[in-house]
Amino acid sequence: MIIYALKRLGYSIPLLLGVTFMTFLFIHIAPGDFLSELKSNPQVSRQAIKLYEEKFHLNEPLLNQYLIWLKNILKGDLGYSFSYKAEVKNVIASRAKNTIILSLSAIVFTWIFVIPLGIIASLHKNKFIDRFISLFSYLGISSPSFLLAMVFLYFAYISGLLPLGGMRSLRFYELSALGKILDIAKHLVIPTIALSFASIASLQRIMRANMLEVLGSAYILAAKARGISNTRILYVHALKNALNPMITIFGYQFSSLLSGAALTEIIVGWPGLGQVALEAVRKQDLYLVMGSVIISGVLLIAGNLIADILLAFSDPRIRY
Amino acid sequence: MRGPISKSLLFIVLLLTTQISIAAQVWQKPSGNYKFDCGRPGGSLILYATSDPKSFNPIVAKETSTTQITSYLFEGLTRVDPRTLKVIPNLAKSWQNQDGRRWIFHLRKDVYWSDGHKFTAGDVTFTFNNIIYNPKIPTGTRDIFTIEGKKIKIKAVDDYTVEFILPSVFSPFLRALSQDILPRHKYLSLVSKDKFTFSMGLDSKPEDIVGTGPFRLKKYLAGERVVLERNPYYWKKDACGNNFPYLDEIIFIILPNPETALLKFLEGELDYYSLRPQDLAILGPRKNKDFTIYNAGIAFGSNFLVFNENPAINPRTKKHYVEPYKLRWFRDKRFRKAVSFAVNRRKIIEIVMNGLGVPQYSPLSPANTLFYSDNVIKYLYDPAKAKDILYSLGFRDADSDGVLEDKHGNKLEINLFTNANSPERITIAVLIKEDLGSLGFKVNFMPLDFNNLVTKLTATFDWEAVIIGLTGGIEPYFGKNVWSYKGDLHAWNPTKKALDDYELKIDDIFNKSAKTLDMAKRKELFNEWQYIVSDNLPFIYTVQGYSIYAVRNRFGNLFPTVYGGAFSEIERVYVLDKAKK
Fold this sequence. Notes:
Chain A is built from 13 helices and two strands, in the order ααααββααααααααα. Chain A is an all-alpha fold and 320 residues long. A two-stranded antiparallel ribbon of chain A has the order 1-2. The longest helix of chain A is centred in the middle third of the chain and has 39 residues. Chain A starts with a helix and ends in a 6-residue tail after the last helix. A five-stranded mixed β-sheet of chain B has the order 16-15-17-13-18. In chain B, β8 and β9 form a beta hairpin. At the A-B interface, α2, α3, α5, α7 and α11 of A face α5, β10, α8, α15 and α16 of B.
C-alpha cells in the first residue's frame, strides 16, 4: 500500500510539470500582459514600463522564465505577485484558509444530504417521494450557485435573519470564542447552501442509481433467499457496495476545495482565494496564477490518492 | 451570428433600464453654501470597496483600489480644493517663485507623522531624491516630475524650507506637488537596501504605514475590510480650535459585487453607496428614507470612438495595419464627421444612463470647471446630414444589399472592438452599431478582454475602430502622451509622425501650455485645443454621466463634489449628535 502511494506520487510529478507549463504557456500566448493596464495610463512612460519588465523578469525568454520559476518552487518560493507586490505564498495563505472553511462546510453539508436522499429515493422508486426528490434535483442542477447566492441574499435582506454576505461581523473581535464560531457559522449559511445545492441534486441521483443497481443484483437476491433481514441487507451489504463509486467522486471534490467557490465568493463577499485567483487570471498576474494552479493540482492529486486508498478499505476486490 | 446577439443584448438592456421620470425629485444637488460647522469627535463611517487594495505603497501602487485608501493616509505639499479645483497650500504653507524655475516652499512647522515624529524638509527631499528619482524603483510618478528629460533639483535650505530648481518653466508643477510625501526616518533603510518596491505591502504591520494624512491604518483583513483610525497627530484644526479629524474610524468593507453592496446599504450596514444609473429606480422611490441621494454633477472621464489612422506597414506581415481603402475612409475628416452626426447620443443617454447624462463633444468634461470650453463643434444627431456627407464622399449602395460601397466598390464594413469588462461601453457600442447600420455601415462588433485591447492599441495596432475611455484629471497637460503625436498613447496614429497639420498644432499647444504660467493664457491655449479636436475628430466623443452618491443622514459637513466624491473633506465630516450609535 505504501509503495503504491509512493508510486502514485511519483507519477504525479510529470503531471504537475505538464499542468504548470501549459498554464505558463497559455498566459504568455494570451494577448497583453500584466503591464497592459499601466501601458494604457497616459502618465506612465515607456522607460517606466521597461523597468517594471526588468523587475518582474517579463523580458526574458519563456522557457527561461519557466525554469527560474521551477527552480524557485523547489526552494519553496512561489515568486512575487505583480499586483500585490508581495510574495505569492503570503497572498494565497491570507485567503486559502477562508476558502477551505467554506468548501469544507459545503462538502460536509452536501454529503449529509446526498447519501440519505439517494437511499430514500431508491427505496421509493417512482413513488411520490422519489418524484419529489427528482423535481428538486432538476431545479438544483439547473440553477447556478451564484444565482442562488444572490436569491438567498435577497431573502436574508427581507427576513433580516442572516447576515448579508461577508465572513465576520464588524464586532467580531469583541466576541467570546463561542460567539466568534457562531458568528462565522451564521455567515456560512448562505454560501454553503448555495454551493451545495447543485452537487446535492446531482450526486443524490448518482447515489440513487448505484443503490438501484446493487439492489437488483444477484447477490442481494441470494441474501434475501438466505433469510437475512431487509435492514441488514440494505445497510450492510447493499450500501457498502453502492458507496464505492461515491468515494471516487468524494476524492475529486477535494480538488475543488480551493477553486470551486470563486463566483459564490464574489457574490457574497467571502474573503476567499477564488476572487483573488480570478482577478489574477484576468490581469495576467503570472506567478499568482501559477501559485493557485499548482496548489489546485496538488489538491487534485492528493484527493484522488485519498479516494483510492479509501476505496481499498471499502472494497475488498481492490488491492494494491 | 453577431447581429442577433447584439440585438438581444440591447433588448435586455432596454428591459433592465426602465426610464425614470421622477428622477429630478429623488436626488438633491449638494448645497452651494459651503459653511462648515465645528463638529463633535467620535463615531465611524462605513464605506465599501469593490476590491482589496493592492498595497499601501502610494509610490508603486497606483490602482484606484489602492489610492482610495492611501489618499486618507498620505498628503502632499499642495492639494486641490475639491470645489474650486484650484491648487491650495497643504504641508507647504506658502511658496515664492520669480522666474517659474526656482521655487521656494515654506513648510508648516506643526506637522507630525502618524507615529509622532516631526515632519521636516528632509522628508520632502527624501521622497523626491531617494524614491521618485530612484532608478531602481519602478513608478509612473517619475515621469510626471521629469521635464524635457531632466530631473528637478531639490534641496533642503533649512528644516522647513525646500528649494526646487526646475530645468525649465513647467506650469503644471504646483498641481503635481500634491504628490504624497513619505517619512525619511521610516523608509530610508528600506530604500537603501533596495527593498522599497516590495515594501508597505498588505502584510505590513499597521505601525509600519506612516503618513501625515488625517487617518492611519488600524487593521487589514484580506478580502474583508480595511479599518482606518484617527491619526492623533494630525495637524489641521477646526475654527473652534479642536483637532481634526472628527471621525474615530473609517471602515472599508470589501464587496466585489455591487448588488450585495446595494443590499447592505439598504439594510443599513453601509453609510454610502455609489449609484449606477439603474440603482436610482430602486433607491429613488423608497419612502421614509434615512439617506439622501446627491447628484454632484457631471463626472470626469470619457467614452469615445476612435478609428485607426495608422498608415504604416506591419514589418512582420509586410501588409498595412489597416487596409489601404479603409485607411482612406478613416483618414478623411469628413467621414469622421459623418459618423459623429450619425451617433444618437440622446438615445445612448436614455438607455445607458437612464437619462442621466449629457452629450460630449469636448475632450474635457464639464466637471473640469477650470479648463472645460463649451466653444466646440457640436454634432447634434442628424442622420440625413450624415447620409449627405457619405453621398458626397462617393458612398453608394450600388448592389442594393443595404450596405454602402465606396467609389471603388469596397463595402463599408468596419470591425469595432471595446473592452468586455465594461457593460456601459458594450451597450454604447451596440447602439452605435445600430445607428451606423441604419446608414448603411456593416459594423462587426466584438468585445475583447481589456489586456488584449490595450495590446492592440499600443503594440500590435491590428484594429479598425475601438470604443474606449480615458480617466480625466484636471490638468490637460498630463494627457500629453495621448495628444502629442510624439506620445506613446497617440492611439489613432502611433507612427510618431504628424499626419495632419492639426496634430502639429496640438503638439505646439501642449508644449506652450507647459511654459505658460498665466492661467488665462493657458485656458486660451486649451480652448483652442478643444476646438481643434472637435473639428478634426480623432476621437468621436459620446456621452458623460453624472456622479451620484447615496449617503445615510447621519453626517454633518457633507459637501459631495465630483472631484472629491461624497466625502470631499473627510477630516471635517462628523456624526450628528442624534445619530450617534
